[in-house]
Structure formats: structure tokens, C-alpha cells
User: Fold these one by one.
Assistant:
Number 1:
Amino acid sequence: MRIRSLFALLLLLALPHTQAQQLTIPLGQQGTRYSISLPERGQSQASVLRTWGEPLKRHASVGQPPISRWDYMEFSLYFESGRVINSVLHHQEPQP
């Protein structure tokens, strides 16, 4: 019993000396290097075409309600009933 108590005491004394390395990555850091603006939620497809031009690819609508996607070089847009519901930046590898 005494050995268990001694072992527990040594374990408790050793715990404060153990440390873990903490890695902190700022939230949203990837998007800060882009100076492009993205279409806003609710913007019409016609408005997007006037501002950003023709997309590289238009994907057919799927699901109910129908959701379509337009792909541009740096981002993709998701539409429902002809209105933007989400704008997503494409992942870019950091430049050395």
C-alpha cells in the first residue's frame, strides 16, 4: 500500500513538469492573401455574369430544390433559384 502511495505521489509531482506544445493557426488566415471580392449571398446570376464574366464551367442543377454550381478560376458559386447561396474560395498552395 505504501508503494502505491509513493508511486501516486511521484506521478503527481511529475505531472506539472510535463508540457505539450501548442500550435496556433489564426482562423481564416488563408483568405487574407486574396484581394478579390466574392459575390454576396442573394446576388442574381445576371449580376454575377456582369461583374465576374462567364464561368469556366457551369454544372447542371441537382436535388430538390435545384442547386447549381459555377466554377471560376479562384472560387466556386452555388446557386438556388438563380440566386447565390454560397461563395467558396479554392484552396491555393502557399507560394514559397
Number 2:
Amino acid sequence: MDVHVTAPDDRSRLEATREGKYLTFSLAGEEYGIGILKVREIIGMMAITPVPQTPDFVKGVVNLRGKVIPVIDLRLRFGLEATAYTERTCIIVVEIQGDSGSVPMGIVVDAVSEVLSIRGADIENTPTFGVKLNTDFILGMAKTDGGVKILLDIDRVLGTFQFTIH
């Protein structure tokens, strides 16, 4: 019987890479977090220009200070039910690493919560669900006073879908 034990220094290295400040937000009643270094700004909802022949989760593009930025509805990207936007709905502009370098993208979320400092020791790996699920986009599960926050690897969430505006 083979038993795989993670060496203590491997665990502490993993903790150190995930430790840090996270912008937390809600989506369909669940709390998520994105590494604060990925966040460029938070803006209120604004007019989004639809782009034909894109997946449903691509809401379109916005003109942010002269730069055209694609906007993804994170609810739809995760296969959650669409909902009407409210005064708390906002767009988080993130910077993801694409094939051509750094790319700004907007993600629509239900509401921004707060910025939390999360220790590496408070972040656990994604549990196995007993079935084959793709959870590669999840950095880990952060244990907080208020429960669990799902920490996202936003490069992987958005990196599988990129389009270029010419």
C-alpha cells in the first residue's frame, strides 16, 4: 500500500504561495475571493455593448477611459442562474495572464464584500467530491469566521476563454 505524505516544507511552501490579501465578493449567495494583486479596480454597472456570436456568459465590452474591456458575467460562467442586476452589482476589473501577456477583463459579481488578509494555514485544498469535477480554477478554500470562502485562480477562470478586440 502506497501512502503519499506531503513533506512539511512542501505544505509551508504551498501555504506561503496562497497567503495574502483577497478581495471577497458574493455570487448567488456564496462568498468568493480573488487575490488583490489581480484586481485593478471596482466599478459600478455601466452600459455593456453586446458582442455577437460569443458565449452567453460574455456580456460584451465596456469603454473604460478609452480602453475597450471584455466583460464576463461570473454567474453565467459558473453555470449559475442569471439574475437581474441591482444597485450592489458591480464589475471587478482584473488583470489576467494571457498568451499575449497581461489582459484586463471585467467580471460581473452580485456584490463586493471586503478585503481580507488570509493566512496560508487557513487555506485548505479543494476537497474531492467523489466524482470527476474540474476544480482547477479553485486555489483553495479559506476558513474564516463567517464560514468558507472559495478562492479563485482568476487566470484559470477566465484564461480558458479569451477573445481579442481589433
Number 3:
Amino acid sequence: MPPGGDPIRQFFASIGHDTAENPVFDLDNRGKRSIRIDTATEAGRALMHRLVADADVFLTNVRPAALARAGLDPASLMAANSRLIYASVTGYGLTGPDAEKPGFDVASFWSRSGWARLTAPKGSEPFPIRTGAGDHICSLSTVSGILAALHHRTTTGKGSLVDASLLRAATYTLGSDLSVQMRFGRIASTPPRGRAINPLMNFFCSQDERWLCVLPRTGNPDWPQIASAFGVPDLAADPRFAGARARRENSEALVAALDAAASALPFATLAARLDAADVVWSPVQTPGELMEDAQFVAAGGITAVPARDGTTRASPSGPINFPGHDLTPRGPSPEPGEHTDSVLAALGLSDNEVATLKTAGVVS
């Protein structure tokens, strides 16, 4: 990374906003430490090797050739530390013609994988994934690989190379569709809401203009309950909608009928009826509405992150909870090089040695 650190530190500046707050960077870096080492120098490379000598995991998103130039490639580091878990995160993987290509989630995860084409309804223009969504999915797969490698080390004593990429994280996430493509050579596009392949698996707007998502179980069990909840029980017996195939062939008529029924009912009434029938459904919420969602709050969805001014900032929690354990971050996201001195002291360097490295520009 450049001396200023991860480019996401400049997220708001890159979109034309001038603010000292950066919750996007804080989300992924809260509680971490930061040290700056110039690996273009021989002394910097030697220092990195000292840090990795007894490390459990080395995690990097730098492209392979740059790592090799700095002597931080898997072969070099794992030769010095045979127990090391070396985790590489790239756009396209460590092998192949595009292994050295730069990648971000809108490109490698969203666009190249097929997500962008399949998600946009047929006939509409592609649109980007929301900030960091593909990155976070890839990070979960990377953690899974690291944990598997750590388990392997407990039985063999040997480290492993973990090769994670945005592209493979995306294609696995899209795996249900891609497995159909691989088996049959084609996959259905995403139709507009009114022509849904399963018109019951859809979005409907209530009288008070609140949207909800309905997800029936496979087959027909939920159809009579859905029709009743929408206040149109007779639709369940209509031969046009009697089975899955008939509903697909008459999708526009069925969606129009359910739209009309939903628009005549308050959201609270629809919600209560669907709950009483044990139908799977969910409100379609804005982020602001989510902040007031009692279940989201009760499930620990908000984490209080310590700020530098002594207050706390609300931030999304991680995806997993460990009841009985304090998961509060140890501190805010670090400034670039904030912990250089303390990390090098823990490595055994004296104050004079650290000062010499700083004077030479090796660390900062």
C-alpha cells in the first residue's frame, strides 16, 4: 500500500465529500494496529521477514509480482516459517492469464462473474454492486480458508497457502445459477416483477406504501395461505393459478391480482396475516428503518466502536455472535503507522534502532 495506507481511507474524498469521518474504513479496521514499512528497501524487507518469522497468518491483497519483488511471496515466507498460513486475496487468483490484473469487487466479483447481468432485470442496464458487498463476501470465504488451514496445521504441523479471489467468491455465491448453466448450458434471466418465474416469490406494496417480500416454500403448500392473507382466498382455487406451471404461465395476471389486493390492505394487517399463516416474508426496509428494527437491535446488529474523542460510534456488527464473550472492538481504526513504535518494540528493537529505521525512511 502507499504510505497513506489503504485507498479506502480516501473513500469520501474520492466521491467528492469533505469529511473527517470515515465509517466505511472504520468498519473493517476498528481495533486493528497499523505499522508502516517500506518494503522497497532491503532493511524494510528484512524487518517484514522478522515480523513473519513466528506469525500464525500472513494476509495480503497485493498482486503476486509485487510480492515477489519484495521477497514476500509464499515460497519465501513459508520457507522461513513452515507453520505459516499464507492467505492471498486477489481479483482473479494466483494462476492464469489474469493473475496479475488489478481487481475490485464491482469488476472482479460483480461484473465478470455474471452477477451484474443476472441481477439486472432483462432489458435494463447493468448497475454496480453497493460499496464493499463483494469484498465482504470474499473476506468471509478467506476467513473460512484460513480456519481450515489452521485446523490442518494442528494435525500436520505444517502451514498452507490459501488462495482466495473475488472472482471465485462471486461464482460460488452465484453457484445455484451457475450449476444450472453448467448442467444445461443456459440460465433464465431475471424478468421484471410482473413476469416473475414464480409470481408468489415477489414484492408487494401495501395500502400505506410499504413494500414487503414474500417467499413461499417450494410446491403449493403456502399458496392458499398467501391468497387468504391477501384477502383473496378464491384465487387459490382459480385454475389459472392452481399449480406452479399454471402460475408461471399466468404470472402477469396473478401479480396484478395480488398487487390490487395488497394495495387495499394496511401493511400491519398483511404482516399479521402472513405471520399467523407462518408464511416466510420480510419487510423491505431502508437502512434508516433497519436502525429502528427491534429484531436487528436485539440480535446485536449494532456495535459501539470507541472513537478518539472518548465517545463511541455506531457501526455494523460482524456476521457471527459468540454469546458470553465481549466482542467490543479494542479501539478505533488506526492512523497510518500509529503503532509502528509499539509493534517494533514488541519485536525486540530498541528505541535507537527504531529511530535509525525512521531516519532512513524504512518505517514511519
Number 4:
Amino acid sequence: MTVVKEKIKARIMAEGPMSVAQYMATCLGDPDGGYYATRDPFGRDGDFITAPEVSQMFGELVGAACASAYQALGEPEQINLVEFGPGRGTLMADLLRVAALRPAFLKSASLHLIETSPHLRKKQQETLAKTPLQPAFLDTFLDVPDGPLIVVANEFFDALPIHQFIKTEHGWHERVIGLNDAGELTFGAGTARMPRSELPAGLAECPLGTIIETQPAANAIAQELGVRLARYGGAVLIVDYGYLKTAPGDTLQALYKHVYDDVLAHPGDADLTAHVNFEALATSAIKGGAKVHPPMTQGDFLLRSGLLERAGTLGAGKTHLEQESIRNEVERLAAPDQMGSLFKVLALTGENCPFPPFDSAD
């Protein structure tokens, strides 16, 4: 039994069943055995490969968008460049390589990486050791200094804890994790109920057993981003897998040794994620004061940003095998049946800040 599983069972025995949010937070962040706290899960040797690990083109095109946003802001003398959950630092390294083509951007920028894992901070430091900006590591967005900002969050919000509610004969009760008669982890319906006033529109008549998810942690960050954008100006780029309109469904999933797994089977050793509700993120950002640009799929964002042109440049003069590899990377990033449609891109800005390529989609 893993350290995390022992802790979870002991806590349930002492305090009673825990919410899905508490379970996710413990599995991912426990300092003694949490998934992100104790290992490098990224890349071909980890449990999953993110877009920056698929191809340098992803980070380069994100970097080009950030450089354009900096120019649209009027090239301020000081700006905070922020990344949430930087993984290995791969995206930021590729971003800074493109940003170097606009020297004023690099001269103005202070780099802040929001990362709580000591293991991943060390990996990010190594990756960015020879880049033109050296990072300051922060625990939360609230630690970012005042001033205009450019923020990137790729596959960050999907790992934030969610709450689940299940429709029962007595209303919507919070879904919890307890122990069965054999002492093993199991799902159940807790005593906490969702007030009818908080139930998303159109879901009141769902059948028994229906599950809906809420994401208060993600929404709180989106609202704070909105507050900062309204106050100081800037741009935020959020890339993640999820859905554009609030809908019922259980999206909590576990990935263990490269395959999908029972979410209760390997706490601490499996990655836990849930699909991001982009409608809720956008609503929270607007509440904070941000302008929300119409979201688009990752495929559309990359193609509008010049993915095919960049692929052609990279492939010029290369061998047939190298060109084929680049074509495969383009397919992986942008094809509808791969990452292109599942992943969505949401752009937030201050009131008067254009953000190509989203403005052409307004």
C-alpha cells in the first residue's frame, strides 16, 4: 500500500468520507508521496506527453502570440511573464527562444513560474539554465508582483481539484470517497447537498445517478486573473482539454503507467485529472473584469498562428524521414482526432488589448 493510500484511509477512518476535491488534492500534492510532488510525469519516460513535448512548434507559436500581446500592450517597460504549472520548462524554453526575436520584450520581462513541486522546480531550473530570463519560483498567482502581465497555462487547470455532485432521490448530494466493508476505497453520496439555486441551468430534471462537476479552485484563479487584467492590463492564454458549455458527466480520470486506470486504485501513483469547464472559467474571468475572447480549438489556434508555415520552415532542407516526423507532429498537435479538437484555447485580456489570432475570430 502506498504512503498516500495509507494516509487517505487513516483520514477517512478518523474523520469520515472525503470529497473528490480532497482526494484529488491529496493524491497529487501530498508532500510524502503525491504524484506531482515526487516525480517527473512528463515526456516519453513519464505517464503522458504534453504538447510542448510533442514538438517545439507548440511553444514557439505560443511565444509568438505572447510577443504580439506585448506589442499590443504598447511594449511596457516592465511586464510579468508568468507560467502556471510549467512541467519540465520545455514550453517556456521554446517561448523564450521566439521572444528573443523581440529584444524589448525580454528586456522588460520578469519571469515567474508558479510551481509547488520541489522536484519539478529543479527540472525547470535545469531546462531554463541557458535561457535569457531566469525564473522566480512562486507558490501561487497571488505572489506575482503588481503590474501588466502575460500568462500561459498549458494543461494546468485540469489537475486542480473538482467537486462532484450526484443526483439522488433526496436531491443533489456531494459525491464522496469512503471505505467499504472490506476496508477498500469506494464512492458514495455524502450528506452535503448542492442548493437548488446553485444548480446549473437546465440540469434540474436529470435522471437519478447523474453526476455534475464544479471547479471552485479553477474559477477562483480565473477571477483573480480577471481582476489583475482589469487593473494592470495584459493577456492570458489557457490551453487545456475540456468542454465549452456546462454539461453533466463524470470526467474524473486516472492515468497509471501510460494507461487509463480506476481513479481509486493507485492514489499517489496515478495522475488524476478532470475536464475543464471553459464556460465557467470564462464567466469567472469576466466577473473579475477581464475581456474574454471567443475560445477555439487547439487545432484552430495553431493553424491560425502559422503552424503549417513553421513546419515548412523547419522541414526545409531536411531528410525525408525528418520531414515525415515534422508532419506527424503537426498531425498530433492539430488533427481533430488527436489533440486538435479535444484541447481548447481561451484568451483573456484587459479591456483594450487585442490578442492575435483571437481578434480575427471575435
